[in-house]
Write a structure and sequence with these properties.
mainly alpha, 7 helices
Length: about 240
């Protein structure tokens, strides 16, 4: 009974802490970005013998790195939860039934896909990294535009720009999804139905690679727009 109660308490605490902690690294990095570039600290930052391209890149790498570390910590926390939180069998401290189920699923995936599963795993990891970079680049772009353009209430302007860009990007994504469904997904589905196993796996890998390249391209666009605004920032007050 004691182990059961401790497992429930631990699970409840994780359900509260994990969603809250999800935003902590990005919020802290954004605060440091704003203070280092657009407050009184900006005078010291921009007078350092370092190019603005290097300054921005260092901030971006730092944010992505901390986001990745936080994601890994969440995975470790999830692994602990599914090991401890379930009701143990016969008074045991650990419950490995979920891990055994995950192992069977992985065995089935490997049996069906073989080495292609490693290709998809690598593409999935790269897509997560690209999506993290994309999100950071979008936030930094909106913060930079708001801080450079607005005379007052720069933080509020950054929030407004972020909301507007998100709305516009969501609208574009909806149109792209409809066009992709008509011109890519449906023809690809018909092609996969008639393709051989190797050809089908190759087409799926190419589709994931195309999505990855789009993420990287848009993230690069946001990054260089931010850099352009930083290069135009002559007033360090």
């Amino acid at each position: 009974m004691f182990l059961f109660i401790m497992g429930i308490v631990f699970l409840f605490a994780c359900f509260i802490a994990i969603p809250v902690s999800f935003f902590v690294p990005q919020v802290l990095c954004c605060v440091r970005y704003y203070k280092n570039f657009f407050t009184d600290e900006g005078y010291l930052t921009f007078t350092l013998p370092v190019s603005r391209k290097t300054l921005l890149l260092s901030k971006m790498v730092n944010t992505v790195l901390w986001s990745v570390i936080h994601g890994l910590l969440l995975l470790v926390s999830g692994a602990i939860v599914i090991t401890i939180a379930p009701v143990p069998n016969r008074g045991q401290l650990l419950d490995l039934r979920i891990w055994q189920g995950i192992g069977r699923i992985l065995e089935d995936v490997w049996e069906y896909l073989g080495a292609w599963s490693l290709v998809y795993l690598l593409e999935g990891i790269l897509m997560v990294l690209a999506a993290t970079w994309f999100g950071c680049a979008l936030i930094y772009m909106c913060m930079t535009i708001g801080a450079v353009v607005a005379k007052k209430h720069k933080v509020l302007a950054a929030f407004g720009i972020y909301y507007g860009v998100n709305m516009g990007f969501s609208f574009v994504m909806q149109i792209a999804m409809v066009l992709g469904l008509v011109f890519v997904v449906l023809p690809l589905g018909a092609l996969l139905a008639e393709a051989t196993y190797g050809m089908a796996c190759t087409l799926v890998a190419l589709l994931l690679l195309m999505i990855l390249m789009i993420e990287v391209a848009v993230a690069c666009l946001f990054h260089f727009l931010t850099l352009g605004k930083l290069e135009q920032k002559l007033n360090l007050s």
